[in-house]
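Pinned message: reference record for Antirepressor
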Amino acid sequence: MEVLFYILKVIICSGVLLGYYYLSLKDKTFHHYNRFYLLFSILISLLLPLIKLEDFTIEVNQNIYMLIDKVQNFNPSENTNTHENLYYTAAFSVLGIVSVYFLGKFIYGTFKIYELKTQFERENIEGINFYRTDLTDAPFSYFKNLFWKNSITLNSEIGKQILKHEMVHIEQKHTFDKIILEIITSVFWFNPFYHLIKREINLIHEYLADKKAVKQSDTKAFAQMLLASHFSGVE
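Predicted structure (C-alpha coordinates):
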Protein backbone atom coordinates (compact mmCIF):
# COMPACT_ATOMS: atom_id res chain seq x y z
CA MET A 1 0.00 0.00 0.00
CA GLU A 2 2.81 2.41 0.83
CA VAL A 3 4.27 2.02 -2.65
CA LEU A 4 0.87 2.66 -4.21
CA PHE A 5 0.38 5.81 -2.14
CA TYR A 6 3.87 6.96 -3.07
CA ILE A 7 3.13 6.52 -6.78
CA LEU A 8 -0.13 8.45 -6.45
CA LYS A 9 1.64 11.26 -4.60
CA VAL A 10 4.34 11.41 -7.28
CA ILE A 11 1.72 11.71 -10.02
CA ILE A 12 -0.17 14.42 -8.12
CA CYS A 13 3.01 16.41 -7.33
CA SER A 14 4.27 16.24 -10.90
CA GLY A 15 0.83 17.27 -12.16
CA VAL A 16 0.72 20.31 -9.86
CA LEU A 17 4.25 21.42 -10.80
CA LEU A 18 3.56 20.96 -14.51
CA GLY A 19 0.27 22.81 -14.13
CA TYR A 20 2.13 25.79 -12.66
CA TYR A 21 4.52 25.67 -15.62
CA TYR A 22 1.66 25.75 -18.14
CA LEU A 23 -0.12 28.57 -16.31
CA SER A 24 2.82 30.82 -15.43
CA LEU A 25 6.01 29.91 -17.30
CA LYS A 26 5.37 28.25 -20.66
CA ASP A 27 4.79 31.42 -22.67
CA LYS A 28 7.63 33.36 -21.04
CA THR A 29 10.93 33.95 -22.84
CA PHE A 30 13.34 32.73 -20.13
CA HIS A 31 13.70 29.25 -21.59
CA HIS A 32 16.90 28.43 -19.68
CA TYR A 33 14.95 28.87 -16.45
CA ASN A 34 12.08 26.77 -17.79
CA ARG A 35 14.48 23.98 -18.70
CA PHE A 36 15.84 23.70 -15.17
CA TYR A 37 12.45 24.27 -13.56
CA LEU A 38 11.04 21.24 -15.39
CA LEU A 39 14.07 19.11 -14.54
CA PHE A 40 13.88 20.05 -10.86
CA SER A 41 10.12 19.54 -10.85
CA ILE A 42 10.80 15.87 -11.58
CA LEU A 43 13.24 15.68 -8.68
CA ILE A 44 10.85 17.47 -6.33
CA SER A 45 7.92 15.25 -7.31
CA LEU A 46 10.03 12.17 -6.53
CA LEU A 47 11.35 13.41 -3.18
CA LEU A 48 8.42 15.36 -1.74
CA PRO A 49 6.16 12.29 -1.29
CA LEU A 50 8.90 10.68 0.82
CA ILE A 51 8.46 13.32 3.52
CA LYS A 52 6.25 11.96 6.29
CA LEU A 53 3.91 14.12 8.32
CA GLU A 54 5.20 12.45 11.46
CA ASP A 55 8.49 14.22 10.89
CA PHE A 56 6.83 17.48 11.91
CA THR A 57 5.58 18.29 15.40
CA ILE A 58 1.98 19.46 15.35
CA GLU A 59 -0.80 19.72 17.88
CA VAL A 60 -3.86 17.61 17.17
CA ASN A 61 -7.13 16.89 18.88
CA GLN A 62 -7.23 13.75 21.05
CA ASN A 63 -10.10 12.43 18.95
CA ILE A 64 -7.69 12.08 16.04
CA TYR A 65 -5.56 9.67 18.05
CA MET A 66 -8.66 7.65 18.92
CA LEU A 67 -9.62 7.44 15.24
CA ILE A 68 -6.11 6.37 14.23
CA ASP A 69 -6.13 3.71 16.94
CA LYS A 70 -9.42 2.30 15.66
CA VAL A 71 -8.11 2.19 12.10
CA GLN A 72 -4.93 0.44 13.17
CA ASN A 73 -6.85 -2.13 15.21
CA PHE A 74 -9.27 -2.86 12.39
CA ASN A 75 -8.70 -6.41 11.14
CA PRO A 76 -10.37 -7.36 7.87
CA SER A 77 -10.89 -10.98 7.07
CA GLU A 78 -7.85 -13.02 6.11
CA ASN A 79 -9.50 -13.97 2.83
CA THR A 80 -9.89 -10.31 1.84
CA ASN A 81 -6.25 -9.61 2.66
CA THR A 82 -5.15 -12.52 0.50
CA HIS A 83 -7.11 -11.28 -2.51
CA GLU A 84 -5.84 -7.73 -2.07
CA ASN A 85 -2.26 -8.94 -1.86
CA LEU A 86 -2.72 -10.91 -5.07
CA TYR A 87 -4.11 -7.85 -6.86
CA TYR A 88 -1.26 -5.64 -5.66
CA THR A 89 1.34 -8.23 -6.59
CA ALA A 90 -0.13 -8.64 -10.07
CA ALA A 91 -0.42 -4.88 -10.61
CA PHE A 92 3.13 -4.12 -9.48
CA SER A 93 4.46 -7.04 -11.50
CA VAL A 94 2.92 -5.57 -14.65
CA LEU A 95 4.29 -2.11 -13.82
CA GLY A 96 7.73 -3.58 -13.20
CA ILE A 97 7.78 -5.68 -16.37
CA VAL A 98 6.82 -2.73 -18.57
CA SER A 99 9.41 -0.52 -16.84
CA VAL A 100 12.11 -3.13 -17.43
CA TYR A 101 11.07 -3.32 -21.10
CA PHE A 102 11.40 0.44 -21.60
CA LEU A 103 14.69 0.54 -19.70
CA GLY A 104 15.99 -2.30 -21.85
CA LYS A 105 14.92 -0.44 -24.96
CA PHE A 106 16.74 2.68 -23.77
CA ILE A 107 19.92 0.74 -22.96
CA TYR A 108 19.77 -0.96 -26.36
CA GLY A 109 19.47 2.41 -28.08
CA THR A 110 22.47 3.69 -26.13
CA PHE A 111 24.57 0.72 -27.21
CA LYS A 112 23.48 1.30 -30.82
CA ILE A 113 24.85 4.84 -30.68
CA TYR A 114 28.19 3.61 -29.37
CA GLU A 115 28.14 0.99 -32.09
CA LEU A 116 27.71 3.74 -34.69
CA LYS A 117 30.94 5.30 -33.46
CA THR A 118 32.81 2.22 -34.65
CA GLN A 119 31.11 2.13 -38.06
CA PHE A 120 32.09 5.58 -39.30
CA GLU A 121 35.33 7.48 -39.54
CA ARG A 122 35.96 9.89 -36.69
CA GLU A 123 37.55 13.31 -36.90
CA ASN A 124 38.46 14.83 -33.54
CA ILE A 125 38.25 18.60 -33.82
CA GLU A 126 38.74 20.68 -30.68
CA GLY A 127 37.26 17.97 -28.48
CA ILE A 128 34.29 17.26 -30.78
CA ASN A 129 34.05 13.83 -32.40
CA PHE A 130 32.79 14.46 -35.93
CA TYR A 131 31.37 11.49 -37.87
CA ARG A 132 30.41 11.60 -41.55
CA THR A 133 27.52 9.16 -42.01
CA ASP A 134 24.73 8.11 -44.36
CA LEU A 135 22.24 7.73 -41.49
CA THR A 136 18.65 8.75 -42.15
CA ASP A 137 18.29 10.37 -38.72
CA ALA A 138 21.48 12.42 -39.05
CA PRO A 139 22.56 15.03 -38.26
CA PHE A 140 22.29 14.64 -34.51
CA SER A 141 24.54 14.98 -31.49
CA TYR A 142 25.21 12.76 -28.48
CA PHE A 143 27.35 14.34 -25.78
CA LYS A 144 30.43 15.55 -27.70
CA ASN A 145 29.73 13.34 -30.71
CA LEU A 146 28.28 14.89 -33.85
CA PHE A 147 26.89 12.53 -36.49
CA TRP A 148 26.68 14.35 -39.82
CA LYS A 149 24.77 13.35 -42.94
CA ASN A 150 26.88 13.17 -46.08
CA SER A 151 24.08 14.48 -48.28
CA ILE A 152 24.19 17.83 -46.43
CA THR A 153 27.00 20.04 -47.68
CA LEU A 154 28.89 21.46 -44.73
CA ASN A 155 29.84 24.76 -46.36
CA SER A 156 26.33 25.51 -47.65
CA GLU A 157 24.11 28.00 -45.84
CA ILE A 158 21.81 25.22 -44.65
CA GLY A 159 24.77 23.11 -43.59
CA LYS A 160 26.26 25.95 -41.56
CA GLN A 161 22.94 26.65 -39.87
CA ILE A 162 22.40 22.99 -38.97
CA LEU A 163 25.95 22.72 -37.70
CA LYS A 164 25.51 25.74 -35.43
CA HIS A 165 22.24 24.25 -34.20
CA GLU A 166 23.89 20.97 -33.23
CA MET A 167 26.80 22.78 -31.62
CA VAL A 168 24.37 24.49 -29.23
CA HIS A 169 23.03 21.09 -28.17
CA ILE A 170 26.59 19.99 -27.44
CA GLU A 171 27.59 23.20 -25.64
CA GLN A 172 24.53 23.23 -23.39
CA LYS A 173 24.79 19.50 -22.63
CA HIS A 174 21.25 18.65 -23.70
CA THR A 175 22.16 14.96 -23.87
CA PHE A 176 22.23 14.81 -20.06
CA ASP A 177 18.62 16.04 -19.98
CA LYS A 178 17.55 13.46 -22.53
CA ILE A 179 19.15 10.57 -20.63
CA ILE A 180 17.52 11.63 -17.35
CA LEU A 181 14.15 11.98 -19.06
CA GLU A 182 14.43 8.61 -20.79
CA ILE A 183 15.22 6.85 -17.51
CA ILE A 184 12.42 8.61 -15.62
CA THR A 185 9.79 8.00 -18.30
CA SER A 186 10.90 4.38 -18.56
CA VAL A 187 10.56 3.68 -14.84
CA PHE A 188 7.47 5.87 -14.36
CA TRP A 189 5.97 5.20 -17.79
CA PHE A 190 2.47 5.28 -16.27
CA ASN A 191 2.83 8.93 -15.20
CA PRO A 192 1.47 11.06 -18.08
CA PHE A 193 2.90 14.26 -16.60
CA TYR A 194 6.48 13.02 -16.96
CA HIS A 195 5.87 12.39 -20.65
CA LEU A 196 4.51 15.93 -21.02
CA ILE A 197 7.55 17.31 -19.19
CA LYS A 198 9.79 15.34 -21.53
CA ARG A 199 8.02 16.83 -24.55
CA GLU A 200 8.30 20.36 -23.17
CA ILE A 201 12.02 20.01 -22.44
CA ASN A 202 12.65 18.68 -25.94
CA LEU A 203 10.84 21.71 -27.37
CA ILE A 204 12.91 24.01 -25.14
CA HIS A 205 16.11 22.32 -26.38
CA GLU A 206 15.16 22.98 -29.98
CA TYR A 207 14.12 26.55 -29.29
CA LEU A 208 17.37 27.31 -27.45
CA ALA A 209 19.42 25.78 -30.27
CA ASP A 210 17.53 27.65 -32.99
CA LYS A 211 17.63 30.94 -31.11
CA LYS A 212 21.34 30.84 -30.37
CA ALA A 213 22.32 29.40 -33.74
CA VAL A 214 21.06 32.47 -35.61
CA LYS A 215 22.90 34.92 -33.36
CA GLN A 216 26.37 36.31 -33.86
CA SER A 217 27.80 34.48 -30.87
CA ASP A 218 30.62 32.27 -29.66
CA THR A 219 28.65 29.29 -30.95
CA LYS A 220 28.80 30.67 -34.48
CA ALA A 221 32.50 31.38 -34.20
CA PHE A 222 33.13 27.88 -32.91
CA ALA A 223 31.07 26.37 -35.71
CA GLN A 224 33.02 28.36 -38.30
CA MET A 225 36.24 27.14 -36.71
CA LEU A 226 34.95 23.59 -36.94
CA LEU A 227 34.21 24.07 -40.64
CA ALA A 228 37.63 25.56 -41.31
CA SER A 229 39.36 22.77 -39.40
CA HIS A 230 37.36 20.14 -41.23
CA PHE A 231 38.22 21.39 -44.71
CA SER A 232 41.86 21.95 -43.82
CA GLY A 233 42.17 18.30 -42.80
CA VAL A 234 43.12 18.99 -39.18
CA GLU A 235 42.56 15.98 -36.89
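Pinned by admin. Summary line: Residues 78-119 form the longest helix (42 residues).
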